[in-house]
Amino acid sequence: MNAAPENLQSVFDRTFAGISQGLDNFTSQLTQREVGTVISVATGIAKVSGLPGVGFEELVKFPGDVLGIAFNVDEDEIGVVLLGEYQDLHAGDEVERTGRVMDVAVGEELLGRVIDPLGRPLDGKGFLQTDKRLPIERPAAAVMDRAPVTVPLQTGLMAIDALIPIGRGQRELILGDRQTGKTAIALDTILNQRGKNVICVYCAIGQRASAVAKVVANLREKGAMDYTVIVVAEGNDAPGLTYITPYAATSIAEYFMEQGRDVLIVYDNLTQHAEAYRELSLLLRRPPGREAFPGDIFYIHSRMLERATHLSKERGGGSLTALPIIETEAQDISAYIPTNLISITDGQIYLSPSLFELGVLPAVDVGKSVSRVGGAAQRAAYRAVAGDLKLAYAQFEELETFARFGARLDDDTRKIIEHGRRIRACLKQPEFSPVSVPAQITVLLALTANLFDPVPLEKMTEAAHAVQAAAEKIPAEVNARLDTAAKLSDEDKKIIVEIARNVLAPFQPKPEPKPEVKPDAKPAAKIEPKEKP
Ligand SMILES: Nc1ncnc2c1ncn2[C@@H]1O[C@H](COP(=O)(O)OP(=O)(O)OP(=O)(O)O)[C@@H](O)[C@H]1O
Ligand SMILES: [Mg+2]
Fold first, then answer.
1. Residues with CB under 6 A from ligand 1
2. Whose alpha carbon is nearest atom 26 of ligand 1?
3. Ligand 1, atom nearest to 269 Cα
4. Domain identity same for 368 and 397
């Protein structure tokens, strides 16, 4: 008789224990899921209802693992920017909150990889094996965490390193019409970072797939992928994906910067980014402003580019140099997006289609280009010659227009023009052939010493190459000074100029009996009298 209640007791105990355990599991599941419903789907946008707790820019999940970002958070409806193929989404589909913001995989494993902003591989090399992630939107470094820009970022392009120098941590805009060599400048800069301990991130935004493939092939072929990450949103990707790409790329770059490394990031190009954002904003029924861009278009670019900086020693001393690219229409640099970016960045490199047509490549328009902070970071050896060079080149550009009309010119003017033409010839450079610092300095010193002036124009390319090659003869101790902040002594300069003079000797025109008679002076000199009183 006693055994029965005891049995019953244990059965009850077990049962209740099981129920309470099940109850525990059940409640925890309930609190985790918050599900809403898709009301409508348009190009890259979904309207969702029934997610009252969702936060601004929170990631939400649709069926088929399509992700979206909550962009417009209203009382009874949410505008979601879709980050993937949305063809299979329908009204009535479930939407789930994730409780986190958009983030991206970061780390050393990304070097050499081509990925999309969601971290999916595009190079067929398998999934990324990294456990580190960073949100794509992060606050920029505070003022006190920043240090002045003091170290140059050599592009290997003489026109830029000498006249529009870029420093590590600077933001320098590259702008110009389509097909003027904007991407080429960015690629040359990446190639030139080989062996310089700089990590590069190339961010392709809304470009044709074939153009991106060409860039990847070039970087791979030239051995630049070892230190480069490529983040791509193609032209046919959802506008949401295009919109987040530069932010994701910046987070990838920031990870390296925070490890104390020097990083270069190229945004190619932000015109496409602005257009993707305009598309999203208009679809979300945000009020259009100038050129139909939304009012916060300046803010979205400035908060991205503010993340490029040189960190102070306490924060590791890393740097992030940004080269945003912008496409102008019909050379109109005063359009909305170009003026915005000109005012956000620390300078711009303007590429002129007319120079491109003339074959002056890279087609940098020195008059319209400026670097507002790079001068302080420029090596002293450059600074010694840059001033003279800039002045001579500016004078030449001004006078060149006159010369085109076949006007009769006085001796001084002609000299300035002939000298300017030689500067231009020396600054010309084919693609993918960066010039080392000693070679650049040798050419620039030879230019300022007027050594090139007697060389006939048609031999200038050959002569400039010969001088570049002769830089190898610079003694080691002088060479060491070229690559540091140390000033070149007059003695050093003399050594380098002497080397250039020897190399240029064979290029002097033979028939002329005396060296001081300038060969290019002869046609005009006879005809025109001196115009000065
Ligand atoms: N320094 C150079 N020497 C020779 N060719 C060059 C040079 N720079 C650019 N090019 C050529 O000019 C063309 C346009 O260059 P690039 O693609 O860089 O221009 P872009 O301004 O980026 O064009 P898009 O507007 O289509 O993006 C390319 O065919 C490139 O090979
Ligand atoms: Mg391009």
1. 176, 178-184, 327, 361-362, 429-431
2. 179
3. 27
4. no
Based on the fold, state whether residues 519 and 478 are members of the same structural domain: yes
> Annotated catalytic sites, by residue?
372
pLDDT, residue 3, reads 55
Q: What is the pLDDT of the chain when averaged over all its residues? A: 89
Ligand 1 centroid to residue 530 C-alpha, Å: 44
pLDDT higher at 65 or 406: 65
Q: What is the CATH number of the domain that holds 90?
A: 2.40.30.20
Nearest to 150 by CA among 305, 380, 344: 380
Please give the number of the atom of ligand 1 that sits closest to the Cα of 179.
23
- The closest residue, in CA terms, to atom 30 on ligand 1 is 181
Report if residue 417 sits inside a domain. yes
Of the residues 178, 267, 431, 433, which should be mutated to test ligand 1's pocket, given the most ligand atoms within 8 Å of the CB?
431
8 A C-beta contact, residue 229 and residue 113: yes
Work out the average pLDDT over 154-183. 95
Q: How far is the CA of 356 from the centre of ligand 1 (A)?
A: 9
In a domain, 295, yes or no: yes
State pLDDT tens for residues 468-527: 999 898 888 888 888 776 778 888 889 999 999 998 988 877 665 555 545 554 444 444
Coil/strand/helix, residue 327: strand
Q: Which ligand 1 atom sits closest to the C-alpha of 184?
A: 18
DSSP 262-305: EEEEEEETHHHHHHHHHHHHHHTTPPB-GGG-BTTHHHHHHHHH
pLDDT by residue (tens digit) across 260-311? Answer: 999 999 999 999 999 999 999 999 999 999 999 999 999 999 999 999 999 9
* Tens of pLDDT, residues 408-435: 778 888 899 999 999 999 999 999 999 9
The verdict on residue 116 lying in a domain is: no
Residues 298 and 190 in one domain: yes
Within a domain: 73: yes
Identify which of 183, 328, 355 to mutate to test ligand 1's pocket (most ligand atoms within 8 A of the CB): 183
DSSP state of 208: -
> What does the alpha-carbon distance between residue 84 and residue 148 come to, in Å, rounded to a whole number?
40
Q: Which of 182, 218, 275 to mutate to test the pocket of ligand 1 (most atoms within 8 A of CB)?
A: 182
Task: Find the angle CA(163)-CA(167)-CA(171) to the nearest 5 degrees.
Answer: 95
Strands (E), 151-303: 173-176, 198-207, 228-234, 262-268
Structural domain of residue 76, as residue ranges? 32-101
Both 373 and 394 in one domain: the answer is no
The verdict on whether omega for the bond into residue 25 sits within 30 degrees of 0, i.e. cis, is no
